[in-house]
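ping. complex inputs:
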Amino acid sequence: MTDTLYVTGASVPDATPKPPRRRNRLTRKVPGGGLLIGAVVPVLLLGLWWLATDVTGTFSQVQLPAPQAVFSAGLGLFESGELFEHMAISLQRVLLGFAIGAVLGLALGALLGLSSIADGLLHPTVGAFRAVPSLAWVPLLLLWVGIDEDSKVILIAIGAFFPVFTAIHSALRHVDAQLVEAGRAFGFHGVRLLGTVQLPAVVPSVFSGLRLALAQAWLFLVAAELLASSEGLGFLLTESQNNGRTDRLLLAIVLLALLGKLTDTLLGLLERKALKTWA
Amino acid sequence: MTDTLYVTGASVPDATPKPPRRRNRLTRKVPGGGLLIGAVVPVLLLGLWWLATDVTGTFSQVQLPAPQAVFSAGLGLFESGELFEHMAISLQRVLLGFAIGAVLGLALGALLGLSSIADGLLHPTVGAFRAVPSLAWVPLLLLWVGIDEDSKVILIAIGAFFPVFTAIHSALRHVDAQLVEAGRAFGFHGVRLLGTVQLPAVVPSVFSGLRLALAQAWLFLVAAELLASSEGLGFLLTESQNNGRTDRLLLAIVLLALLGKLTDTLLGLLERKALKTWA
Amino acid sequence: GSDGGEDEQLETLNIDFATYNPLSLIILENGWLEEELEELDVDVKWVQSQGSNVANENLRAENIHVGSTAGSAALLNRAVGADTHTIMIENQPEWSALVINEDSDIESVEDLEGASIAATPATDPYFFMARSLQEAGLSVDDVEIQALQHADGRQALANGDVDAWAGLDPIMAGAEADGAELLYRNVDFNTYSVVNATGDFVENHPDIAQIVVNVYEQAREWATENPEGTAEILAEYAGIEPEIAEAVITERTNFDIDPVPGDDVYAAMEAAGPFFVENGDVDSQDDVDEALESLFHPEFAENREATDAEGTEDAADEADIEETEE
Amino acid sequence: MISPASTLTEDDVTAPGAATGSSAPASGSGAASTGRPGYTSLDVRLDGVGRSFGEHTVLRDVSLTVAPGEVLAILGSSGCGKSTLLRAVGGLDTGSTGQILIDGSPVQRYDERTAVGFQEPRLLPWRSIYKNVSLGLPRSLSKAEGRERVDELLELVGLRDRASLRPREISGGMAQRASLARALARRPGVLLLDEPFGALDALTRLKMQDLLLDLHAQTGTTVLLVTHDVDEALQLADRVLLLGRNPQDPAAAEGATIARLLEVPGTRPRDRASAELAALRGELFSGLGVDSHTH
Amino acid sequence: MISPASTLTEDDVTAPGAATGSSAPASGSGAASTGRPGYTSLDVRLDGVGRSFGEHTVLRDVSLTVAPGEVLAILGSSGCGKSTLLRAVGGLDTGSTGQILIDGSPVQRYDERTAVGFQEPRLLPWRSIYKNVSLGLPRSLSKAEGRERVDELLELVGLRDRASLRPREISGGMAQRASLARALARRPGVLLLDEPFGALDALTRLKMQDLLLDLHAQTGTTVLLVTHDVDEALQLADRVLLLGRNPQDPAAAEGATIARLLEVPGTRPRDRASAELAALRGELFSGLGVDSHTH
Ligand SMILES: Nc1ncnc2c1ncn2[C@@H]1O[C@H](COP(=O)(O)OP(=O)(O)OP(=O)(O)O)[C@@H](O)[C@H]1O
Ligand SMILES: Nc1ncnc2c1ncn2[C@@H]1O[C@H](COP(=O)(O)OP(=O)(O)OP(=O)(O)O)[C@@H](O)[C@H]1O
Ligand SMILES: [Mg+2]
Ligand SMILES: [Mg+2]
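pong. complex structure:
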């Protein structure tokens, strides 16, 4: 019992305190609830699509095929094994290009974000290159690298490079100055300071940059597969568009969106883990 | 004079303290020094280009024209007045699309970054749409919007939307929780809290997103001008690529890079001003 | 990409295939070229061309030695400075026409005055449209041209965004199947499907160029005898319905021509030339004339001798198509 | 007696007057507000309040009633749960158990009837000191009134000539004063202050204490004040709450609770030399584990 | 006497022993190090040090020599420039004028011979307390030695059972102790502490003071200690520096300088009741502008 001298209205109940309430609205109510809720809008859109094509017939088959048509186009390609090949090669290109671009973006972004000399020297050039459209790289790469796998991966790497570069570059300039000073005061500088204070502090920004870069890598894939390819979702997209196969075109779009979303989700998991460690 | 009791080795010189040293290496030595230094690398690249074409002749005229050829191609188009038209219409499209996309990205990013309900509901869908490549939008927009100016601006807005969305969305999730709590404790919530604490705290991230979005707007311009255009730098690019006019192609690339860099620099000035106010 | 060495033995022949060049598909499908080049110890690498512009680009960058284009595109490429030569004619297609919607009240090319037309600049359909207009006493300035990629042009037509479309097969065949109508067709306004080679290749590896032409000859003979088989292969490579492929092959493709680039194709190209200058794609008519004079290398086609390669069942799966690493 | 209009700058080294003479209401009852009309004094009732973080129980069984207008000082060893308790009363913490009533109704999330002076200054780095203090103003105030109040407070905490600076341009003690001014600007029913004077020198500390008492006399607000300074607690508070584990019962459950709850006799300003205060002082120091003779 | 191995938790309410008995060297001369062999004591020489922010002069004409192994307490009103002075000595500030020599050579940017305990805890939010303290370890230490030292320090500052928590999961006072431990882990030639005990309760504060003196006795490091507590200054320091404007000369230039520099007689632990100390106390309080009789 408490040892108060002048207790005023203090009643001390015996009951042990209840465990703390957990407040995870929404997602914790149902197992997998988060997934379900995220599916609401896509399902609605699918329904709309179906209504607009198969039911009301607002659009003709070639303008906008019904969802089933897209599905059966996919089934056809799946059965011939082509679908898997398209997806596999595209995935490989995107992942490779993304990895290369992200690593370079991190390195150059860190360098320019930390060294004002390097920044003054290189930032204008990087900024100008950032403004070269993906489609404009195609003829240049064709000329300089040729039409093999390299040029495709390079193009995707270019796409992935800039978001990562911009994110880390700008985030590094806004790391809490007090923490950086503390790090320096304890004898950290250069790479050690970067690894100890600055990089961890910008982890959220870097991941936002990485996710944009991954999305951009998928965007650049289509341009990359204009570079003399005969496989890949980007190729499927361009070819179907050229041949007027709107069902396959939509299939390619849907698959690109799905694969993009899938890789993004995986990156998101990594992000969550990193944020647990760093933020 | 000081009123010390046990002064130890205290000498008090009369001289008034010198004004504090200013430490702005590099850029402050020469007026316009920052610009000059930023020009070093581009000038080097230009020299390399000139060497590879005009001097050593490693590349043929149609493979990679010399800088002078590009310049004279530009001059030709300039004299006919076409060049200005191409640039003006492209600039207009990019700025309009960027403005629309950025505003929507800010709004939706803020909504999803703050409301976990909206986030659970919409984020997966947004993520999937982000993965649709720019070129894939072309047939879809053609179908839904037609081939007028709207569809081009919409495509550019789509491109500008995602970087802004991602940047603000992820930054909002990492605003200093102590400051947010302080804001709430003083009766701020919803839009007022957003404007008072959260938005200012994410200004650096938002600007990094805006700059990426602007770059992306220029990237999407080329895809947008595949949509039934007869003017614009993207049109010039595609047409020149198709026709094998490598000099004009390079001209278009250089102009896109220059205009991209120019608009980025203007945005950078705005950023600096905003950061002075907010960070 | 380039292998500029002059007396060097060619290790790999880079050659394109394209859905607008059905013979290339037949050769690829049967593995004839690999077979014929085996004894010379030359490998074959196949690269797909999505369109004449892509083939031209790859020829300019010397990423391919042999590439197939429309005749007008071959001329344009040389006129802008590319060192390429037309070595043979693949077929005389009727791949371009002016297309309108079923319910359109446009009845003749003359009615197109003031109309909006979707076309892809610098392609055969574009020149087809320009010549058709000219023939009807109009010029491209009398209509509103919407620059669109081929497939997008069809879409724009279907949406009613444009009044007519300068169409290209096989998209055009698909549109027809969906009810679109051909307003005007004229096989002579199409500028042939031709096969080109880089100057370097023609000069330094004439033996291999000859073999390529010979294999093409074998394919031409096979295609003439097997239109159904050809349509089947086209349908597979182009990813289109078999009926549409059949229509394209039987109705709008003519393999029964003289492969030697000669007067007919010269005339067709000559007619397209002025439009390059009018559009500003080429700076002067002199450039076009000069290009046309030096474009043809007819000797290979003149000396052609159909090969008798046997081919293999799964040649296409074995073939070195650009990215499949085997 | 320090008048509200007297100024203080960091270089001001003149001696202060005696502390404000207003007396607080007696505790132990729902005493009526002593504030001027227009201001509200609210009572705070804690009923079996507890808090655990995961396995680790920090607070348990805290039950007491704070009368309207009362000043309650909270003492306790570092990390014993003082801030946690304050946060629970302000509605900043959703994880606590038991019941907290302000003015008879349960405390809301971020309860508008309270204002918090955090242990850290928590100033918005991108706002000037002036604008940071303005954040604390109640929504109902007109712009002119608000400006007047902020100006007055900045003057009182000695920051008038620093009003336009950013938080990173002022010293630690100045930031703490700005944070105090922000909480005071609110004039809430319940004022929750977490070590508001910790980073201040002796003179400034006295002035700030006077300022708090002045404002309390004016508005009659209820004050919960966390402090480490026993003398400060005895000077300012009507009652002193000592949080801690029960020393008589080492086997008691983990988590701090009310170890002592002492009523401080006399009216403010209190005579530091009084025997009664000395006894309380000893009591509190020994409750904190310190031999008071060394002080 | 508190032994280095004695532990302290936030619930620990037993009374502490007397403070450590080691005596510091006499000031006023380049006294030899009293530290154990292997540790360095460095002297600090300030020569006409000044600092202005834009128009606003904060410090001027600060000249003094701190002997190796000396403990110098720095007092002054809030915002007078104490932190600014400390930062200048640590090489954290590039804007100051005049000369600062450590061990005869000019202070470097982020001088490795110093360690700073900042006024704010400045812990890296993504690192555990253990890892935050490890940041302070000198680079030369082996991993095992480092682990041992951090463990020992965490034990001494009473955070051993919180070693794995993140900064946001500990209380303000705990964060301050972690920050102190980080600075102590360095065992530098010159230790710069900015109000290291400000957020601590009386008992914890005594223990931390003892810890500091213990470490000082062991290593003989030179200590510059900013504090607001006059008694603390008199207990810990060999000399006390009072920063402020010259009260005799109100027309003197803007900016604080040495207002008093007092030698504290006797060896530690000092008797708080001694008349000599009482006189110094009065002197310092009046220098701070406070009538010491109210204390
Ligand atoms: N970056 C800066 N820009 C402008 N003024 C500054 C800056 N840093 C400090 N100052 C000013 O310098 C003065 C001294 O600050 P300093 O932090 O040294 O005070 P202090 O003595 O440590 O005070 P406290 O006891 O409150 O911590 C203050 O008036 C402050 O406004
Ligand atoms: N978010 C959290 N997660 C885990 N533990 C926490 C968290 N917040 C506080 N604690 C724990 O709760 C205890 C009490 O913290 P609190 O801040 O209330 O202490 P305090 O009494 O204010 O101490 P101080 O005087 O040092 O500020 C501490 O032991 C701390 O470790
Ligand atoms: Mg606390
Ligand atoms: Mg300070």
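Chain E touches chain B through 35 residues (CB under 8 Å).
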